[in-house]
Amino acid sequence: MEYKIVFSDIDGTxxxxxxxxxxxxxKIIKEVKKQLPIVLISARMPQAMHHLQEQLDIRELPxxxxxxxxxxxxxxxxxxxxxxxxxxxxxxxFNSKNKLDLHLSLYYHDEWYxxxxxxxxxxxxxxxxxxxxxxxxxxxxxxxxxxxxxxxxIMAMGDEEKIDQLSDFLKNNFSEELNFxxxxxxYLEIADKKISKFSAIQHLLENHYKLTxxxxxAFGDNYNDVEMVxxxxxxxxxxxxxxxxxxxxxxxxGHGKEDGVAQSLQKLFSx
Length: 271
Fold this sequence. Notes:
By secondary structure, the chain is of the alpha/beta class. 38% of the residues lie in helices and 23% in strands. Strands 5-4-3-2-1-12-13-14 form an eight-stranded mixed sheet. A six-stranded mixed sheet has the order 8-7-6-9-11-10, with helices on one face. The protein starts with a strand and ends with a helix.
């Protein structure tokens, strides 16, 4: 099978232990790019992906952000799916009324708002190399109401048992409307149920590249990668991936923090 496009998740899959691109990964991807497109696909916001594109010399290529909620081609949206603003209000009210004090980061396109610059905001800034704007959740909701905007993603961060409470609330009230998953025990990532990384890949392939999923290679590690890795022509899990990802993968490569993606690409394309 001659594959024609590669998609790669970022966190847990492509970056090393310093949460950076290794020189070897940069070298291999630059070589692969001469043969076929390499598209980054992530829960991240676009701005937190662009600097990685620049290092890999793929800045002109599309990106898929927010787990498929936003697809950009030439930096312009070709598909955008947001969480209803009323749903955000209900999540904010649950957090406030129950005094959970969970940090709710709110994202729309390249806007990232945090209620305060706390431990969680600092941690995410270090991880993504992007600085947030500080504004209470209620004020962001008011602002977005006046601007007819709604979030592409809500990231809840806090104590494990409080994240459990929010997760239970979402299961009981929004299981038909929202996708939510634990990226770790202290993080709950929330998006609209209509989107996924795999649905975004399908949209980009059909509407931009005119390719099929059988033409496609995809790398991933976490719960939000399961459908993508299982649905493409060759789905590859890094060795540190969740077992659910490995179970649907065509093959398993090396550890994400140890150039697993680059090792696999080097073999696949005889570099």
